[in-house]
Every structure is written in C-alpha cells, then in structure tokens.
Design a protein that fits this description.
Elements lengths: L1 H69 L6 H20 L12
Helix pairs in contact: 1-2
Length: 108
C-alpha cells in the first residue's frame, strides 16, 4: 500500500510541477507582450511629442512673420515681402496639418 501512496504523491508532484511550469510560461509570455507594448507606446509618445514640437515651432514662425508684418508700413516693398513670407508660413501650416481639408490653396 505505501508504494501506491508514494506513486500517487509522485504523480501529484509531477502534475503540480507541470501546472507551475505552464503558469510560468504564460506569465513570461504576458511579460514579454507587456514589454513590447510599453516600447510601442514609448515610440508613439516620442512621435507625438515631436509632432507637437514641430507644430509649435511652425506656429511660432507664422506668428513671428505676422508680427514683423504688423511693424511695417503698408504699400512698401518691405511690407510686400513680409506679407509674402507670412502667407507662405500660413500656407505651410494649412497644408502640413490639413487645417482646410476641403479647400485648395492656390499660388498667387
């Protein structure tokens, strides 16, 4: 009888080890997936941050061009050049960030 109990105990230990191993493998799989997702999120965050910084810089350039225009006298060559520069920056903003999806911007 003790041999049957010993065999049963060994089998139970074997099943417990297999269950533990399966659980450990699943945990490793979940951990690897979580690490991959974290890296993906980090990359997306960096891309969004860069895009936001580019937008901020572009808006700043447009505002600088607009401020320079406001300081000039209308009708002068300087004013015409500053107006063209401000319009170019506005066009870049509109086209780059698709602010007017349904409109077409024409030169001239």
């Amino acid at each position: 009888m003790p041999l049957v109990l010993l065999t049963g105990a060994i089998a139970a230990i074997g099943f417990a080890i297999k269950a533990y191993d399966a659980e450990r493998k699943q945990a490793n799989k979940v951990e690897k997936e979580a690490i991959k997702n974290a890296k993906d999120l980090e990359e997306q965050y960096k891309e969004l941050k860069n895009s936001a910084e580019e937008l901020k810089a572009t808006i700043s350039e447009y505002e600088d061009a607009q401020n320079a225009l406001n300081e000039l006298e209308k009708g002068t060559d300087e004013y015409a050049e500053a107006l063209e520069h401000a319009n170019t920056k506005a066009k870049e903003l509109i086209e780059t960030y698709k602010l007017w999806d349904s409109y077409e911007i024409k030169d001239g």
